Amino acid sequence: MKKVLVTGGLGFIGSHTVVELQEKGYEVVILDDLSNSSIDVLAGITAITGKAPIFEKLDLKEKAKVESFFEQHQDIDGVIHFAASKAVGESVEKPLLYYENNINTLVYVLKSILQLPTQNFIFSSSCTVYGQADEMPITESAPIKAAESPYGNTKQIGEEIIKDTCRSNTTLNAIALRYFNPIGAHSSTKIGELPIGVPQNLVPFITQTAAGLRQELSVFGNDYPTSDGTCVRDYIHVVDLAKAHVVALERLVSGNNADNYETFNVGTGTGSTVLEVIQSFEKVSGQKLNYKFAPRREGDVIQAFADTAKANTDLGWKAERNLDEALLSAWKWEKHLRNI
């Protein structure tokens, strides 16, 4: 049985990936500092898969503890690195927090991986590395523009660090998965997105508004050069995204990678405006959303949706679930949380 370390494994994407890994027969070890997640997620993962992953509470900013952990787990076959701060708006307000939490931790993890007999690394990257891309859909060869936010910059810098490390260490094999916008929840409603405090992402704010937790939804900007004036994003079901991590890991474990550093876009290939997301949610939930237009938010790009041809062809992965299905799963998860 292959042993996989998942950092940030109790977070939104991490927890869904742990489920998919366990269901494929992997032994999973989770590291999480619980700063933006809940220990309750562990019970949800266990309920779905019938097996409790190994869990250790650890802050990756503590270098000595990271080194000690890896010294005790030399039999790890792969690392999937999710642990990071991830809110665009917050990163504009607190840039140093983002540089410390997203860059320092990556360096500590990579340094420790280089001491392992088997060095396979999957990096949780983002379409924010493209900034405002010139052409849609966005291919992996699109130029990396100046980041629109410190969060986006940490993903750009992170990719550069990994690329440089792979160049100087041919034993290290890495894949950066550039996510578009993950939404939805596991069909069991045992795990899903659990934002702490006011949600920074659109869909949990939608579901909390529909559930009565929020008075109204703010749509940031209605004067963008898009079909209805609102931003366009590529919303991907989190389970599809989780499956992409398993496929990417298997590519490295089996030695099928074309290079020791590769990048893949992970999206649906379809762009949806904020208003289209609201309309889809209202359709699948039967709820009328209370929303208002607000000024543009600093750090937001106009539109971003993926060209997924490379992931489809080289990874053999394709998103299977559409926007309606993803939003319905998000609503079922919200109702489960609120006992509605």
What is the tally of beta strands? Answer: 14
Quaternary form: single chain
Find the CATH topology of the largest domain: Rossmann fold
β-strand amount: 15-25%
Structure commentary:
- The chain is of the alpha/beta class and 340 residues long.
- It has 2 domains: 3-183 and 236-266, 3-Layer(aba) Sandwich (Rossmann fold); 202-233 and 269-338, UDP-galactose 4-epimerase, domain 1.
- 40% of the residues lie in helices and 17% in strands.
- It is built from 11 helices and 14 strands.
- Strands 3-2-1-4-5-6-11 form a 7-stranded parallel beta sheet, with helices on both faces. A 3-stranded mixed beta sheet has the order 12-9-14. It has a two-stranded parallel ribbon with strand order 7-10.
- Strand 5, helix 6 and strand 6 form a beta-alpha-beta unit.
- Helix 1 runs parallel beside helix 2 (40-49), helix 1 (12-23) crosses helix 8 (238-253) and helix 7 packs across helix 11 (323-338).
- The longest helix has 19 residues, at 95-113.
- It starts with a strand and ends with a helix.
- The model has no long low-confidence stretch (mean pLDDT 97).
Secondary structure elements and their pairing?
Elements: E1 3-7, H1 12-23, E2 27-32, H2 40-49, E3 54-57, H3 63-72, E4 78-81, H4 88-93, H5 95-113, E5 120-126, H6 150-168, E6 173-179, E7 181-183, H7 202-210, E8 217-220, E9 232-233, E10 235-237, H8 238-253, E11 261-266, E12 272-273, H9 274-285, E13 291-294, E14 303-304, H10 309-315, H11 323-338
Parallel strand pairs: 1-2, 1-4, 2-3, 4-5, 5-6, 6-11, 7-10, 8-13, 9-14
Antiparallel strand pairs: 9-12
Helix pairs in contact: 1-2, 1-8, 3-5, 5-6, 7-11, 9-11
